[in-house]
Amino acid sequence: MAGNVGIYLGIDLGGTRVKAARFTPDGVREASESAPSEAQGDADAILEAIHSAGSSLAGNADLLGVGLGAAGLLDPEAGRILNSPNIPSLNGFDLKARLQEAFGNVPVHMMNDANAAALGEFHAGAGVDSSSMFLLTLGTGIGGGFVVNGKIWGGAAGVAAEAGHMCIQADGPLCHCGARGCLEACVSGWAFVRDAEEIARNTPASAIARLPSLTPLALARLAEGGDAYARSLWEKAGTMLGTGIANLMNLLNPDCVVLAGGLGKAGSLLLDPARRAWESQAFEEAHKSTAVKMGALGEWAGVRGAIQPFLNP
Ligand SMILES: [Zn+2]
Q1: DSSP H helical segments within 175-226, as ranges?
Q2: Which end is more exposed in the chain, N or C (fewer Cβ atoms within 10 Å of the end residue's Cβ)?
Q3: What is the distance between the alpha carbons of residues 27 and 19, in angstroms, rounded to a whole number?
Q4: Segments making up each domain of the chain, as ranges
């Protein structure tokens, strides 16, 4: 009989859901679950949501370590979230120490959620055959993570790869970060809703104005049905995304750019105009040698990446 070899827990703490998964010591996901993140609650309620998701998965197994990916600006050394726009009660909270305590003093590793997703795709998903990979997460906001030879390239202060805030259009729409024309302000879940609301206001007879709720998914369905306004939104967003990808290709020329997140589900609506843009804007040598792929791990990239520091420290 094999002995109890132990498990790792990977946690992905987002603004709406906390996802947790149980992994073997070599990083194979055995079980997972997803629960509301209690983001509007106090820090103790959030801690409890994480702990209860994790401990029900761990059961009686020998817990070797807990990896956490969390949205926001972190101080991984201090184990603290400095600024969490989506979970404000965690600002300044000693999350790592409290998690460690809650899970019985096992080692805890903490990182930004986009970096966690990037490590997950690199080591166990779309990036496994590459030596450099840029991950773009296309969701309500836009995240980025850059992995070189298996490690996150964090830059001087650990805040590199914020691709959502590279400038695409200098006089473009205002971004949540205070700048104008960031990729996220041009192509993201919230940018779609903003543009669709404007069409609904200006053109009350449009199909967009009659949608019960303005979501990227609803706009994708309209566009697939041939609606010209919805098609123009996807065409514009795709072109802007392609400009962002062309910038990444020219600047970094990674082996691959991996696209994750909900907007990618729009498929060719987004990718056809994006491809036209990167093929015309990036150097031919750059776009021919950088593959653009969809993520392979879906919503479970972050939990897998969060435990990676235990597998190859
Ligand atoms: Zn910005």
Answers
A1: 183-186, 189-202, 216-224
A2: N
A3: 16
A4: 7-118+300-311, 127-296
Query: Helix (H, G, I), strand (E, B), or coil: what is residue 107?
Result: coil
> Could you tell me which CATH number the domain at 127-296 has?
3.30.420.40
Ligand 1 center to residue 49 CA distance, Å?
A: 30
Fold match, 7-118+300-311 / 127-296: yes
Quickly name the fold that domain 7-118+300-311 has.
Answer: Nucleotidyltransferase; domain 5 (3.30.420)
Contacts for 299 with CB less than 8 Å, ≥ 6 apart: 19, 34
**Residue 18 Cα to ligand 1 middle (Å):** 25
Confidence at residue 71, expressed as pLDDT on a 0 to 100 scale: 85
- Confidence at residue 2, expressed as pLDDT on a 0 to 100 scale: 46
Q: Ligand 1 centroid to 178 CA: how many Å?
A: 6
The reported pTM is: 0.93
Expressed in angstroms and rounded, the spacing between residue 230 Cα and the centre of ligand 1 is 24
**271 Cα to the center of ligand 1, angstroms:** 22
Query: How far does the centroid of ligand 1 lie from the alpha carbon of residue 166, in Å?
Result: 7
Which residue ranges in the chain fall short of pLDDT 50? 1-2
141 C-alpha to ligand 1 centroid (Å): 10
